[in-house]
User: Fold these one by one.
Assistant:
Number 1:
Amino acid sequence: MKTFQSLSIKKKLTLIITITCVISLFLACMALITIEFFSFRQLMIRNNTTIARTIGMNCQAALLFNDQKAAQDTLSALHAVPDILYGMVYKPEGDVLARFISQNAQTKELPEISHRMQRGTVFHGNHLDLIEPIVMDQETIGYIFLQAGLTSLYARLYRYALICGVILLLSSLIAYFLSLKFQRTISGPILDLAEKMGTVTLKQDYSIRIESQAGDELGILFDGFNDMLTKIQERDEALYFTQYFIDHMDEPAFWTDTAGRFVYVNNSACTFWGYLREEMLTMDIHQIDPNCTQNVWKKQWKQLITRKSMIFESLHRKKSGDTFPVEVIVNYVEYKGKQYYCAFSRDISQRKLIESKLEQAQKLEAIGILTGGVAHDLNNILGGLVGYPEIILMKMSSTDPLRKHLISIKESGQKAAAIVQDLLTLARRGAIIHEVQNMNGIITDYMQSPEHEMLIRYHPRVEFKTDLDPDLLNNLGSSVHLTKMIMNLISNAAEAIQDQGNVYISSKNQYLDTPKSGFDFIPSGDYVLITISDTGKGISQEDQKKIFEPFYTKKTMGRSGTGLGMTVVRGTMEDHGGYIDILSMDDVGTKFQLYLPATRRGLKKKIISESIDAYNGKEYILVVDDVREQREIAKSMLNLLGYKVDTVASGEEAIEYMRNHDPDLIVLDMIMEPGIDGLTTYKKILEIKPGRKAVIASGFSETDRVKEAQRIGASAYIRKPYLIKKIGAAIREALDAKNG
């Protein structure tokens, strides 16, 4: 049976068909031989009975007359029947009247028979005994006994058996060859099915199908197989899509077991962490997440089982040792009785940077709210410290001994006003005038300034070197803020050098045809590139993230720094639409690169005049300011220049004044509290006096409101505290433009 089970389906079918045919034919032959055997026996009985009756009829006379010779002669006729071995005629009392012994008999002795003669036939092993009564006139007058051999029967059976054997052999051969052919109708599709199954298993190709041409059970089997492949293919494609999506998603995905060992990592996880997949699958989460200690892992796992999913922030460490912040989304998964930690992590370095910038912006906003209000009040106070000394100096003799002290008061007020402007720049609420500037001129002016000379005296062993491009493009901006920015950077560069070293200041035109990623992301375009570098101790990567934060400094507070210098630099660059890049190495030095958008516009010609006579006039001016000291200073300066001046204390008063008066020009403060501001006042004045010119004045202002006022008709903008030349030039320019 084991041998049969190990045969191929083809051999099994051939063997089954052949054996079935042979057994069927064998049984048929046996049945035929059996039928023939019994039929021939009956035929022998009939034939021998007929012979016995014939001989009995012929022996009636011999029995009546006890004629032994006649009876013997009658029995001798049995020589013509080869199968008859013995024959005897008995008298009624059982005495033998005549006997016959065939030459074919094996013994010459007569067989013994029972004295009680009975009619009938009996088959013995190799012969047939027959006793037939001899009846005459319905009276039994004797008996005849015949014994026939079965040689002819057995010979006939042998012939039949031989014929059946030949037929059986030929039939078996025919059945074998026919089975070889016809078994293919069954084994062929089955073998094809087995082959296709092997191909599916080997190649994992579930798109293979078996063509079903029959409507029988094989057809049902093949249809079922094809349906199964279709469902497997659909499931496999869905699983493959999911697997492909997870493997190729941009964010790391990984599974761990309860011990934290990785059981799956996607491509991004390998890329982010810098390991091969084979390496990752031998590691655990503790090697990737330095914050995930054994105790943290156990607590986290307990929470995950309870909550099923969690989101938290952590640090991941690359193969290089670098760490980066991540947000991890974890899900609890139970599969086939095992528990898994299924996680997706996201690099949030950029988000952390944005959050840091947002936090810094919020700090600046808070500081801006504070400094904005203080600066506004300081500007009003400084107006007297700057304005009145200037008026007094104009009326004072040049030989007066108090003149020097007044000049010092005025210069101190101007310095205080510059500090206020720094505060406003820090708060990013300064009213920055974007005029055409050339950074070469700003750098040169600073290098020749008293501030730079003082810096040289503080750092005598530091050499300052410049390399300025003579064909440098211009840029838009405020010379005051740009100068302050350059001064802060050069001062910091000098202070970074502990003993002897160099500070390099260079300028050149720079075109970026592709964006540049540095400290800032710098878009493509034309730039004026200012580079300030030193050979100092350098700035660490950690400090580079903080140097622009307000009040962050490593200097001694109150001596060489306030912690606002770099914040002012950052604010100035952002106000000018510029970008910063920082290159620094420990003990090598630091390089600041300032990218300012270039412009093709030309520089404005400067009006050089030592006398204020060019600003004189006789026109009618209205000064609108909510601070009494500012109104009086402006009125005194303009009166000195020959103008007729009236003043009002609010925007509402100015509107009422304009209903009944017609001044040539309005000097309008932008911030007036608690009433309406300068922009709203100017709009309402234009409704009464269309086309009326105005000059906007303020210590600071929302830039968009200043621009809006200028868009609807205002001329120049002047920044407080008032200086007689600045206010005179602005008013003269506005009036000449109106008259022109």
Note: The mean pLDDT is 81.
Number 2:
Amino acid sequence: MTLKPVSINFDDKWRELRQQMELIVGEQSSEVSGMIFHEVCTARPTPFADKLFREVSAFFSRHVTALREGILEQESNLLPGYASRWSTFDAGTGYLHMVFEFYNKLATKHTTSGASFQPDDGSNTPMPIMTLAYKRWREHCFEPLKTRLLHNILSEIEKDRNGEDINSSVILTVVNSLVTLSNDPKAPLDLYKTQFEAPFLQGTSSYYRREAAAYIADHDISAYMRKAEAWLDSEQLRARKHLDSSSYSSVIKLCEAEIVTAHREKIQAECTRFIDQDAREDLTRMYHLLRRIPGGIDPMLVAFEQNVTAAGLKEIERLSDAAQKPEPYVDALLVLHSKHNDIIRTSFDNDNQLIAALDKAFRSIINDTAKSKSAGKAPELLAAFCDQLLKKSNKNQSEAEIEEKLQQVIKIFKYIEGKDIFQKFYSKFLAKRLIHGVSVSDEAESMMIAELKAVCGYDYTTKLQRMFTDMTVSEDINKTFNEFRSNNDIPLNIEFSMLVLQTGAWPLGSAVQSPFNIPAELEKSVTIFEAFYGKKYSGRKLNWLHHLSKGDLRATYGSKRYELQSTNYQMAILLQYNNEDVYSYSQLRQLTNLNDADLKKTVKSLVDVKLLNLDSGAEDVTESSLLKYNRAFSNKRTKIKITTAVQAETKEESVQTHKSVNDDRSLYLQAAIVRIMKSRKTLSHNQLVQEVIVQLSSRFQPAIPMIKKSIEGLIDKAYLERVENTLDKYNYLA
């Protein structure tokens, strides 16, 4: 074998080559030598390249024409016949293209060099084997048959949509032939797109427009959505079985337009009913269908938000007076939030837009005082609910359950606009828990503070954390004090301990304390501790909070001994009965020096537990009341806590706390305005108002009139001034 040019007889060589090509394209043989092409194209003295090109072109024209005639002989099986012959032709052509590499290179060389090549059809474009073969198939087989082929393909696909069995592999082979024949680099897939995809999409649109209109007219929306879901799923599968991948998105968008978009108003109209009925499957289908189209779920967002808001307000209205109590109110919110959050999770794939709608609805329920009477009380009620959870008296739940409930409470807390109100009440409740030693656990308390810190930042919980620091420091002070007494041989005759609390960290100084005469039994302990503390911490002043102090008394009634846990006020009254059995109200006032409000409340608590008796027939404690020691007192328990009634939050204390919050808000507002103006120097009124709202939004939502009042106050104090000749612009004054 040699690659040198040789002299040949073209007719003999072509006859041999043609026979081999006929066997290959008919898949009857795969044995062929590319040397024949080489010899023909390099022959001496003159190569036969142009003649070879013409003969190859004519060969494919004759061969494809013969294949077409064979297909037409089996017209009842047009698609299988076409698919079978195309598969054979395509495989053979591919093998020829691979074997006759020299021929392909020569064709390409002619193209790039501008050499002339004149096939038998008059074309001036030389082509590699595969390109030429596909061109001839398109001209001599597809073009004459395309009308019947496309009609049969579309008919078969419609049969498939109607549930009839079809040969999907034949359909795919025919469709893929159009993709293969669309080999023009300037217009890729042109044949497939124009001859097949366009009529296919038109037929698909007509089919689903007709079917969807008929089905929704005869069925309810639930049934229609199930059918729509099935249609879309089956059409997606059908596209993957029968179409080129470039058509997938076009088919699905068209189906969505006819099945969903055309009927979306009817589908959207059922959203409220499905939410009311908690129809999770229907909601899931509705969401998955509507989110396919632009703006499809927008009405769902509105309906969902309105439904949650209405359900929340209705539930609070149903609770009526109970909604003013912490547990029913917060439990109702938690149940409502859990239900709708679960709907979002199970039916709406945790869609952020639905989560935002839920958040908006809860902000309205909790904060909008125009819609709910309980809205203004939400921060206080939530703080009281946390107090109930974190007290030792909460024996119905394990520590793990308490922590889980607190995490749920934080979800509600995030919606509260008056977070400063919550903070004020929470700190008061925490102070009482710590002072009276009734916290369920330090771990639960620390977890709650950590959650609050995560939501509102470090500054929000600084005082709460300082309260725990004071408790630890107080333990050390008590230990040091006891060592001091032991070293100096100072007996007290009673067990005595104290908590030393920083005024700035504990919310204990807002209420006016009653004057109080310390019982003689406590005077020595108080005096010695004051001397010890003053020597150890010079310059510090102790202010005794007797209204928050407590002590244990041992009392004997007959042969039975009791241990009574009382407040200092209760203790001071009870200790008087070591001297006399009967005292008038005025005598007790003189002995204890308590004001009327605290004295009446304290005496009433002792009457309620039957340690003291009022005059016969009297119900209320008055100026003329006589209070007698009840020597017949009896109780099943030997340890009795009589502090609960006087430690409970009163309406007056609640009002005082709200007043304190408003005072704090005024200071926060002024501080925020000064910070902003110091940074910006000059601002318009509207800009200043907006920046103040943004800066304070993590604590509370300041009202516009309140901001205006603070600005006027700062102008009066010469922190700000109005820009000359303007009414709505301010300068900062250093």
Note: Residues 106 and 315 are 86 Å apart (CA to CA).
